[in-house]
User: Fold this.
Amino acid sequence: MNRTIPNDVLERIRNKNDIVEIVKQYVQLEKKGSNYFGLCPFHDEKTPSFSVTKEKQIFRCFGCGKGGNVFTFIQEIESFSFIEAVEFLAERANIVIPRQRQIERHVSADEKMLLTAADWLTKYYHHLLKYTAEGEAGRSYLQERGIDDRTIDTFEVGLAPINSDVTVQFLQSKDIHLQVLVKSGLLTQREKDQYSDPFRGRIIYPIKDHVGKVVAFGARSIRGEEPKYLNSREHSLFRKGNLLYNFHLAKNEMRKEKVAILFEGYMDVLTAYQAGIKNVVATLGTALTEEQARLLRRYAKSVIVCYDGDDAGIQASYEAAWLLKKFGSDVKIASIPERMDPDTFILTYGGERFKKEVLATSDTFIKFMMKYKRRQYNLSLESEKIAYIEEVIRYLAQVDHEIEREFYVNELAEEFSLSRDVILRDITKHKNQNKQQAKSKFHPPPNIQYERRNKRNDLLPAYRNAERKLLTFMLKEPSVLEKVQQKLGIHFNLDEHKVILTHLYAIYEEKGKVDISELIDKLVDEQIRQIVTELAFDHTKEFITDEEINDCIHVIQHEATHMNELRILRKKQREAKDPLLAAQIGLEIIEMEKKLKH
Assistant:
């Protein structure tokens, strides 16, 4: 973690970004008592075990153990470095980090060169498309596809010249090391000093990361070249399965609307965005991945899958819908008439009809599954009809909303002349089976977690538990901190506890209060930060008596005394020249170690 950002700047940024408000942009939270709870965004769960405290400005998941402050949360949720998280939150709060204080991100020299080159190439391709004679073919293509100048500028669409030498000369004029671009696939090398642009003659769609930096390019042929579409090769800053096209522009709209619209193609995104539909993203030439499904779930409660209306599009919709459902999204699947693709429908009928006739009429997950599975069975045969009904019932057993389940039960009963009671009995049977299977994956709620932890603590050394107990109340009560500081200072036995004490005393000395969020920032070691968040969320006991404090101090001092005696005995044993004396000292050491274990 970089320490060159001044503490006063970090404090201002923390204070202007309330952790509850930040987390709410990614997680649906419900207030219970003084804390907020929701489903953890960092692991799969069905019972909320993720907690946020407004008072302490920290979070913790009792299932997977992740915890920290607002900077930690943004680092984890956005896959940012510490510096990127600070700059992200500073920008959100309109706080300018003084230029002389700004710090380089943790990227290598080659990665910095790559980002610089990608930025220059984006400007270069865009200029060629808009303002040169060679760009006429690209402009005509985009006009035919209904894309206007404003959208071209918003997405910085460009055109790569047919002659690669022009591109290479441009990059050299900007002092770009060409070998770095060869490694990342932005250039290819034919011979020792011969380079070519793999995207030459194609329309260019810059691909940006979550904060809007260009990290790769997508390209489409306009002269009949094959393959029709090309993407940059993956490299350290670009993983196709981790990014979504237009995510940097769409994420705020998705949060606001609580809905994400998922397309397959760049043109679908451009056309929809131009029509005023802004919460749109697309995969990058591959099937939807788990990382992308998690990302969508963080930003939107619902996802509408809107792929092409042909057979391949329907199959891809089925696979994407299951994956999104797995990660907790409410999924709908749009059906586009006449086997059209989304951008053709919008171009032909307009954005309003697309919203009303495609998005608003999207099938629920179950309705789509019923339609999809129906295609796989010959319902004129009794055996296949029964198999289809049984498969639909298995899906219905997974529906949580009773009204929705009731609707499809009635539909199924009416279509196939079945008793509702029979269908409902079968659904109950499958629901019970699902519950049994889920038991092994269940994350116990916080009170059970504490009970289990306390049982584990009974098996740990007494001095370790005494130190943790004191730290827990030192984080809550300044009076406890003052007593421990006066009687023990930093003389705990475990090194990680000494580190916490050192920073805790320093913060209290400076501010006259305990600031857990600032303490987390000062701790470099991730394991020690997790100890602090665990202790800060420990509510097993609300107060500690003076007698208990003194008992803990006695246990800690007793351990320290015996450990010192052990060190003296070990030194004597090493220095003993008489083997019998060394053996006798060895027996004393063994006896003392036995006592310390109990």
Q: What stands out?
A: Residues 490 and 498 are 6 Å apart (CA to CA).
